[in-house]
Amino acid sequence: xxxxxxxxxxxxxxxxxxxxxxxxxxxxxxxxxxxxxxxxxxxxxxxxxxxxxxxxxxxxxxxxxxxxxxxxxxxxxxxxxxxxxxxxxxxxxxxxxxxxxxxxxxxxxxxxxxxxxxxxxx
Length: 122
What we know:
By secondary structure, the chain is mainly alpha-helical. It has two domains: 11-78, no CATH class; 79-122, no CATH class.
């Protein structure tokens, strides 16, 4: 889009939304609301980069380099995302989100969003 940073450049944040049309806009808005709520509640660790506004993969790599250069210990958790998502028990997820303080309206929206959806691994 004119005036927008290229998503191919390092450091450019672009949340992924896997739907089309007005659903994509609604999902983007709900994703932003959810991120704001969990940041305000302090649920995310200070070192959390994934899904946070203003943080990119390059930010996390630069932080790792700084830590290594200071001869400090680096711990990395790598997840098999394709293997993880199909195994999430959504009812447990909704319950845990509510327990940590995510507003019920957001939890209910997420529940409605997942109705009839399936994970397809390619």
